[in-house]
Structure formats: C-alpha cells, structure tokens
Design goal:
alpha/beta, glycosidase, carbohydrate metabolism, cellulose degradation, GH_1_N_CS, polysaccharide degradation
Length: about 500
C-alpha cells in the first residue's frame, strides 16, 4: 500500500484529494437491516435491550429499521447513483451464527454474499465489519464480553465469515468502536446489554481487545494475501478545560480510558501504567490479562479506522470550572453508571459554539488532531476516517425535498480537516460518511437522523437529501470545492 499525497497546487477554493482516495458511506446491521426474526436469525443483545421498556426512546426497536434486508438491491443502486466508491457495512453475528456457537446458517451468509455481489457489480468496494455491537443474546446469557470464552467464539465466527466472503471482500474490520461496547454497554448502561458495573466494563474492554487479536490471526490464515485487516476506534480528542494541574490530570485519565486502553495494547503490546493504577481498585488486571494476551492483541494490522464526531472537553469535577456541564456519561444520555472507570470525578463540558441535534459541538480541528496523533505514533499505518457525520432535525419540504445545509457545512469542514492532515503527512486513504441513510440510532431510536438519505420509516421511501447530492459531487470529482454561500461557512 503506497502512501498518497494531496495536490500541493490546491487553492482555497478547491482541495483536491489524492488519486485513489476512497469515498464511501457507512451503516450497521442492526440499525438498517430489519428482518429481525427471519431466515434463522435469533436475538442479539440489541433486540433484547430495545424490547426492554424504558431503554430506547419512544420504545423504538430495530425489528424493521430501514428494511435493508429486503431492499438492499435498491439501496445499492442508490449508492451507485451517489457516486460512492465504497460501502462500509457490518455483518449481523446472530444472522450468521444464531447462538454464537456451532455451524453457520447459510441463509444468513447468503444475504451477505448477495449484498457483496451487488456492490461489486456496481463497482462499489465492500468494506466489511465483523462486529458492530450485535452480540448474540445466547452469549450474553453466559457472560457476554465479561468472560474470556466470548473471544474464542468471536474468532470462530470470524473464520466462518472469512470462509464465506473471503473471495469477494478485500477490507476486513474486526470491531467497531469497542469503547462503546465495553463502557456504554457494561459501564454506563446506555447501550446493550445495559449493565452498570465498572469491573465488568474493564473485563469487557480486555476481552474485546483480545477478540480483535484472535480474529486477526484467523483472518490472516483464512484470507488471501491481498486482504486488508483493520480495527475501527472512536478515539476521543480530549481537551482540558484549563491549564490547571487538576484539569490536566482529568484529561490524562480520560485519554487513558478512552484512547490508550486500546492504542497501548494494539501498538505497544501493553496497557498504560497510569490506566492500571487508576483502575487497580476496580479490577484485578493480573488475573484478567493472561500470558500471551498482549502479543495476540498487538498482531500487525494493515489499516486503522478512526471514527470522529466531536471533541471531548473535561475538567476535574471537584473544582469549579466555567462552562455548562454535561451528564457524567458524556452526553450519551439515559444511563445510571459511568463509562469512565477510575475517572468518575471528571466533569464533561459542552464547548462554546455551534452544536448538532445530538448536542455535540461542531469542531473539525478535533479530527485533524486525532489523525495527526495516530500518524505520529504509527507513521507506517495507513488510516481511514470510517465514520464522520452529524444529526440534524431534517424534514421533507412541501416540494418533497430535504434541505440540510448544516450537514453540508459540517462535512465540508471535516473533509477540509482530513485534507489538511494528509498535506501535513498523515497517510489517510479514505473517508466514510455516517450514515448512508437514516436509521435506528441506538438508544435514541428513530428520533435522530444522521443519514445522507432521508428514510420515511412508515413507507420506507428513500429521499436523498441535498447533502447526499453534494457529497456525490465531491466523491465523483475527488475535489472539495468552497461551499455555496447558502450552505454556511466552510
């Protein structure tokens, strides 16, 4: 894989991306597929969670979602119409291996075979994620990610999918945002399975790291040499609210449990000493980490995915700090526990300025800073922005159009940040917009719309928003032009 460089002749009015830069959009299985009980699929933890009263806004579930399972051919045609070069999707573990054990259900695998074939026929590169949070409920019933056996089950599942799709798919991602799986699922309780125990969250994070490593070993042996393996992390661009020693230490703690808990074992084969010290009262790390685990986790990968939406502003909550304070679960809402083991005293703050419908600050400098950080730590490792986007209160006009200039301005500023990072030496190979279409937005249900394509969930009609048409032009031309005046500042 050869590093790509931007056109140094770019002007402020046209930022040209490197030849071969990948333009895509992303989704996740539970958020769009529907068909929750069809063709052998059994419940995942998100089926259970969403059907539990009070867990998801308005009692929404992913039972039907965007009905992609039945409409995938039309959706792929829409991707082609939008000039997408790649589509990042996830495989539903309980659709392929319903109990998380034993043989695969061929009907489940057939869906992904047909999907990838349709993509390839349209000239769209499939980018596959093995795990986007839909653990089979049967595995959660015997401990889920808190028990070591789940890492073995995941490796087995990875081998099943690789055996079925290895001849079609080049890009393979093990896990999407394991921070959310561990700390929102087992720490704060805002995500499935809804547990609120710091020890369980820390056990889950190690087992997710280990599952990644084991899966990489399986993929290396099962896939062609041309395959590219990766993991996708939602790294946090952590900033202290002030230069005080207390606030700097708050930022250090959140960086440890938000970023270095993954980057340490992945890059260096070790957990950071300060993280171990911060959490020693919560979990027995010596008993948790077995001999050989860290070597497994640090197996070489070909690519790293980075998801970014907003920076993280923190202070020591025991000291007075200016600025509105967010809930201690960092604005994810609804949970009673903390997703930050060993850092429960840290306060989160909303930075000044514009926000999205998620009440997340719009600040593209955070994406630039993250890309440059990883590029400095691992200059040999190619990167992709595997999720970036924004939710706004979209609606269909009387003329049948969805105008979303705020989303265009958001994506424009973040693409400019990606271009700047490439110009400054970061080896960024592609960008995936989150999301292709409106979907089931986890605990927010259908109340938040991230899609470039509007979905009327009652009729399942798809309406490309103005941002979709704008993004299609960027992808087609490989150039980011200045924004029209009506779409805000760049």
């Amino acid at each position: 894989m050869t590093a790509v460089q931007p056109d140094r002749a770019d002007t402020s009015r046209a930022l040209r991306f490197p030849p071969g830069f990948v333009w895509g959009a992303a989704t996740a299985a539970y958020q769009i597929e529907g068909a929750a009980a069809e063709d052998g699929r059994t419940p995942s933890i998100w089926d259970t969670f969403s059907h539990t009263p009070g867990r998801v806004h308005n009692g929404d579930t992913g039972d039907i979602a965007a009905d992609h399972y039945h409409r995938f051919r039309d959706d792929v045609a829409l991707m082609a119409d939008l000039s997408l070069g790649a589509y990042r999707f996830s495989v539903s573990w309980p659709r392929v291996q319903p109990t998380g054990r034993g043989p695969a259900v061929q009907r489940g695998l057939d869906f992904y075979r047909k999907l990838t074939d349709e993509l390839l026929e349209r000239g769209i590169t499939p980018v596959l994620t093995l795990y986007h949070w839909d653990l089979p409920q049967d595995l959660e019933d015997v401990g889920g990610w808190t028990v070591r056996d789940t890492t073995e089950r995941f490796a087995e599942y990875a081998g099943i999918v690789a055996g079925a799709l290895g001849d079609r798919v080049t890009y393979w991602t093990t896990l999407n945002e394991p921070w959310c799986s561990a700390f929102l699922g087992y720490g704060s309780g805002v995500h499935a399975p809804g547990r609120t125990d710091p020890e369980s969250a820390l056990k889950a994070v190690h087992h997710l790291n280990l599952a990644h490593g084991k899966a990489i070993g399986v993929l290396r042996s099962a896939l062609p040499a041309t395959a590219r393996t990766s993991i996708t992390l939602n790294l946090h661009q952590v900033r202290p609210a002030s230069g005080s020693a207390a606030d700097l230490d708050a930022a250090r703690r959140i960086d440890a449990v938000g970023n270095r808990v993954f980057l340490g074992p992945l890059f260096n084969g070790d957990y950071p000493a300060d993280l171990l010290a911060d959490t020693a009262h919560l979990v027995d790390w010596e008993a948790l980490v077995h001999g050989g685990d860290l070597a497994e986790i640090s197996r070489p990968i070909d690519l790293m995915g980075i998801n970014y939406y907003t920076p993280t502003l923190v202070s020591d909550g025991r000291a007075r700090t200016d600025g509105p304070e967010l809930p201690r679960n960092d604005g994810h809402g609804g949970g009673t526990g903390s997703p930050w083991p060993g850092s429960e005293h840290v306060a989160f703050h909303l930075p000044p300025g514009e926000t999205t419908a998620m009440r997340w600050a719009v600040d593209s400098t955070g994406l630039y800073d993250l890309l440059m950080r990883v590029a400095r730590e691992r200059p040999d490792l190619p990167l992709m922005v595997t999720e970036n986007g924004a939710a706004y209160d979209d609606y269909v006009s009387p003329e049948g159009a969805v105008n979303d200039p705020e989303r265009i301005a958001y994506v424009h500023s973040h693409l400019a940040a990606v271009h700047r990072a490439i110009a400054d030496g970061a080896d960024v190979r592609g960008y995936f917009l989150w999301s292709l279409m409106d979907n089931f937005e986890w605990a927010y249900g259908y109340s938040k719309r991230f899609g470039a394509v509007y979905v009327d969930f009652a009729s399942q009609a798809r309406i490309p928003k103005r941002s979709a048409r704008w993004y299609a032009e960027v992808a087609r031309d490989n150039v980011l032009q200045d924004l029209p005046e009506e779409d805000g500042k760049s």
